[in-house]
């Protein structure tokens, strides 16, 4: 499930990996809500992109490797999108060292997460 205005590179990559892309709505939550409806209707298991503890833990596994490879590290820059990566990195960094900052970065061409944070609405 993707928004009507999704990043074309993400759409292409999803299709190349064999995924079916269904577009729904202009905002992330529009697509997410529709995906949840389809999951209930069809008996599928819906995995939330930022609220699945095992998913967040899994994508955060790169962070201990970074910290162990350079104990003096003071910041980690992670891509921001669905937030599972940034959440995973932040949890691990805080657990291993209170002094490490996790900085989220997003494409200037597709700044949905940035705009949502800036407006106070996380969609």
TrEMBL record:
<dbReference type="InterPro" id="IPR050147">
    <property type="entry name" value="Ser/Thr_Dehydratase"/>
</dbReference>
<keyword id="KW-0663">Pyridoxal phosphate</keyword>
<dbReference type="GO" id="GO:0004794">
    <property type="term" value="F:threonine deaminase activity"/>
</dbReference>
<dbReference type="Pfam" id="PF00291">
    <property type="entry name" value="PALP"/>
</dbReference>
<dbReference type="GO" id="GO:0006565">
    <property type="term" value="P:L-serine catabolic process"/>
</dbReference>
<dbReference type="GO" id="GO:0003941">
    <property type="term" value="F:L-serine ammonia-lyase activity"/>
</dbReference>
<protein>
    <submittedName>
        <fullName>TVG1184036 protein</fullName>
    </submittedName>
</protein>
<keyword id="KW-0456">Lyase</keyword>
<dbReference type="InterPro" id="IPR001926">
    <property type="entry name" value="TrpB-like_PALP"/>
</dbReference>
<feature type="domain" description="Tryptophan synthase beta chain-like PALP">
    <location>
        <begin position="2"/>
        <end position="120"/>
    </location>
</feature>
<dbReference type="GO" id="GO:0006567">
    <property type="term" value="P:L-threonine catabolic process"/>
</dbReference>
<dbReference type="InterPro" id="IPR036052">
    <property type="entry name" value="TrpB-like_PALP_sf"/>
</dbReference>
<dbReference type="GO" id="GO:0009097">
    <property type="term" value="P:isoleucine biosynthetic process"/>
</dbReference>
